[in-house]
Amino acid sequence: MLKTIIVAPLVLLFALFTAQVAAAPKIEHWTTANGLRVYYVPAPELPMLDMRLIFAAGSARDGDKPGLAMLTNSMLDKGAAGLSEDQLAEQFEAIGAVFSSSTSSDMGWAGLRTITLEKEQQAALDLWLKVVSKPDFPQKDFERVQKLTLVGLQAEKQDPASLGSKAFYQALYGDHPYGQPENGTEDSVQALKVENLKAFYQQHYVAKNGLLAIVGAVDRAQAEALAEKVSGALPEGEAAAALPEVKPLTEAKTVKIPYPSAQAHILVGQIGNKRGDEDFFTLYMGNQVLGGSGFTSRLMKEIRNDRGLSYSVYSYFAPLAQLGVFQIGLQTKLEQTDEAVKVVGDVLGKFQQEGPTAEELEASKKDVSGGFPLRTANNSQIVEYIGMIGFYQLPLDYLDTFTTKVNALTREQITEAFTRRIQPDKMVTVIVGGDEK
Amino acid sequence: MSTAHAIERVKVEVPVHEYKLDNGLKVLVKQDKRAPIAVVQLWYKVGSSYEPNGSTGVSHVLEHMMFKGTEKYPTGEFNRIIAENGAEDNAFTGQDYTAYYQVIAADRLEVAFDLESDRVRNLTLPPAEFKKELEVVKEERRWRTDDKPTSLTREQFEGVAFLNSPYKNPVIGWMADLDAMQVEDLRAWYERWYAPNNATLVVVGDVEPEKVLELAKKYYGPLKPTENIPPPKPQTEVEQKGLRTIKVKAPAELPYILMGYKVPAMVNAKEKWEPYALEMLASILDGGNSSRLSKELIRGKEIASSASAWYSGFGRLPDLFSLSGMPTKGEKLETVKAALLEQVEKLRNEPVTAEELSRVKAQVIASEIYERDSQQNQANVLGSLETVGLGYKLADEYVDNILAITPEQIQAVAKKYLIEDSLTIAELDPQPIDPNKPKNAPRFER
Questions:
Q1: Residue B222: which pLDDT band, with cuts at 50, 70 and 90?
Q2: From the candidates A88, A93, A333, A376, which should be mutated to test the interface with B, based on the most B CB atoms within 10 A?
Q3: Do residues A31 and A67 share a domain?
Q4: Which of A390, B129, B333, B382 could staple B68 via S-S, CB 3.0–4.6 A?
Q5: Which domain range does residue A118 map to?
Q6: Is B63 a catalytic residue?
Q7: Is B172 in the A-facing interface, judged by CB distances under 8 Å?
Q8: What gap in Å lies between CA A349 and CA A346, rounded to an integer?
Q9: Which residue in the set A4, A296, A332 is minimally distant from B139, CB to CB?
Q10: Are A169 and A296 found together in one domain?
Q11: How far apart are CA A277 and CA A266, in angstroms?
Q12: How many Cα neighbours within 13 Å face the side chain of A300?
C-alpha cells in the first residue's frame, strides 16, 4: 500500500538469527514416530498458522551439479499429486493460503501460512502436503524453470553486487561445496535433468533429514496432530551425512572484476564460524562493535560518518553447518576505491589487535540485551528462529540464555578470539567496478 | 455475479485512539500486546512531491541530517542512545511524507519520545556534517539508481510520464540538484515543514493509550506550532495528449519494459469506488501465482521471465497504473509488450470471472489478518493514510470497499483509464557491459 519509500540512513538488515530476548518464546520440541523433529511455539493471538518444513537439502548438497538443490526446491509447487501449477496456485489462493519455499547453502525448505478457520486450514494443509510429499516434477515445467534460472544468471551479470558476491565465495571456498553458486552456472543448469531432481528430492526430502517448525493459533494437541500428518506423508529416509570441513585460507587473494559502474563494490573477508561454534558469542559481540551494529559500529563511523565514503558499510559472520563467511562490504565511487579499501584494512587491523574498548563493549551489551524483545515480536520471526535452532540442533534455551552469555563476555575474551580466528594477512578482497588497469 | 466470498471473514478489530495536542500534533495509538515492544513513528507532511525544481532530494537529505544533532544531543548521540536501549531506529522519505521511527522495548518508550521530540525544532545542521552526509547521499543515489539498469529506466520513465506533476522527480533527487545543494536549503526546508502541527505521531505496540498521551504531552506539548504552513502549489498534471514512448540505453544484459497509464488517486477520485476497482484490476493481473500475468505470460505462453502490474491509490496526487515485464530467454521485448497490451485489451473487453474475483477477495481477507503480524505494517498504514490526507479511518473501511467491487466496475475502470492516449512506455535498451570483456571473467591477483 505504501509508495516508493527510501530508507535513508542505511542499515542493511541481515537475517543472521542472532541477537536475543528477555522473555523469549518457549519452544516445545518432540520427534514424530518416523523421525521428523518438531519445534512448536503457540501464538494464539491471531487466527493464523505458519509452518515450515526444513531439510538438510541446501546447495552444499549439489555435488557436481550446481543448481540442483535450488531447482529441486523450486519445482515443488510446479505440479503435485496430479495437479498442475495453475491448479495448485488457484487452490492455495482461493483460501487465502500462502505457499513459500527457498534454499540456502545448508537448507531447502517449504512454508505454509494459512488462516486457522477449520475449513481453510484443513484445505491448506492437505494441499501443502501434496506439494511437499507428492511433487510431480513435470518435464515441461522443469524446462521453463531451467530457462528462468538461466535468465536469472544473466541478470546477475548486470548487477555488480552479485558478481562480487559470487567471486568472493569462489575465492574463499575454492572446491568446497560452499564455494559453488546456489543457482548454478549456465553449463551446470543446462545439464540438469528431471531425473536428477527426482533423485535429489527422494533422498533429501525425508523425515529423518528434516524438521517441522510450527507457530500459530493451534494448541499442543493440534500441533501434534499436524506434525503427525506431515511426517506421515514423508518417508522415513536417512539424515544427510555431515558436510566436509572447510580449510582456512593460506594466503591473501585479490580479485578485480572490471565493470562500467559508477561505484566499486568492495568485499573483504575470510572464513568465519559455525553454528554452535565455541567462539560464537565472542565473535558475534566483537563484530557488533566492528561493523555489525549499524550506525554505531566502528566501520560506519570511519567510512560513512567521518569520511562520507559510502552509503552502506557492514561486517558480519554468517555461521553455517560448517565454517561460514566473515565479510566486510561497502560501495564507493570508483575514484575512492583505494582509499576505502585502505580504511577497511586499517579499521580491521586495529580492531583485530586491540579488540573493543571497555565503553564499546558495554554499549554493545546494552544494545544486544535491550533489543532482545524485538527479535521475536511476530510469528514470521519466531518461525524463522525455531527453524534455525531446530536445524542446527542448538539448545532449546538458546534464546533464553543468549543475553546472559553475551553479558558475561570480557574484552580479553573477544580480542583473544579475534586474534585466533582472523588472519589479516590472509584476507580475500573482491573489487567490482572500474577498468582493468 | 455472486457476492459470497470464497472464505469467511474473521474480523479482528482493534480501536485506534486518536488525540490532538494543543500545538496541533496528532497522536494515534493502537494496542498490540503480542510482544513487549512498541513501534513509534513520527510522520511529517512533506516529501519529494513538495519540492520545487532545482531542489529535488532536499526532503531526503534533510532526513539524513536529522541524525546529525541538536544542542541537547549533538552529532552521534541520537544513534548512541538508541543503541544503548537496544532499539531499532531509522527513517524513510517518500513522495508525500518523511517519517522517523523507533522500535523499542515498550518500557523504554520515553527514550524515543525524548529524542524524537527534541529534533522537531532544535536541529543544528552543522555545515561540516552536511558536507560529508551529502557525499553519502550521492553514494546512495549511485547505489540505488545509477548502477541499476531497471531503476534507471524507472526514473526516466517517471520523468517522461509526468510533465508537471512533481511525481516526475526522483525521491532521492537528481544528481545535479544534489551537487548544488546547500545547508541553507535544508535549514529553510526544516523551518518550513518541521512543526508539531505538520506531523502525526503513531504508536503501535504493548502500550496504554492514556500513558502514551501523557508522554506526548510531556515531550511534544511544549513545542511551538508554526502559524501558517502554506500547502504546496497544486502542480496538477496537464492532460496527456497521446502515447509517449522512450528508450533508455544503459549497460545491461536484459531488456525491460515499463508501461504506465494515468489514473486517479483516492484523494481526488470523483467516483470513490474507482481506485478500489483499479486495485482489484492490478490484483487480477498480478495478485499471486494464479493471477493472469503469471498464468498466461510466465507460464502459458512462456514469453516473460517476470511480469508485474502495480497500482496504489494512496498518494497525495494522481499517479500511474503500471505494468512491467522482462522477456525470457530467446523471446523479444516486443513480444512481451504486445502480450501486456493484449492483457489490458482483454480487461477492457470482457468482465473478469467470478472465480478470479473470489480468489483475489480471499487473499484480501486473509491479508487483513496476516498484516497484523507486523506492528510496523500497522503503524505504516495509519501514518501514511493520515499524512496524505485520507485519514487513518480509511484503514477500517478499506477491506469492505475492496470486497464490494464487482466485475463490471473492474471492466469500467479498464475501459475508462487504460487507454493509449494516457499511456507512457519505456524500454530499456541494453548496451554491452564491457565490450572488451563481455564475460566479466574474474581476474585473480595476489
A1: very high
A2: A93
A3: yes
A4: B129
A5: 26-232
A6: yes
A7: yes
A8: 5
A9: A332
A10: no
A11: 28
A12: 21
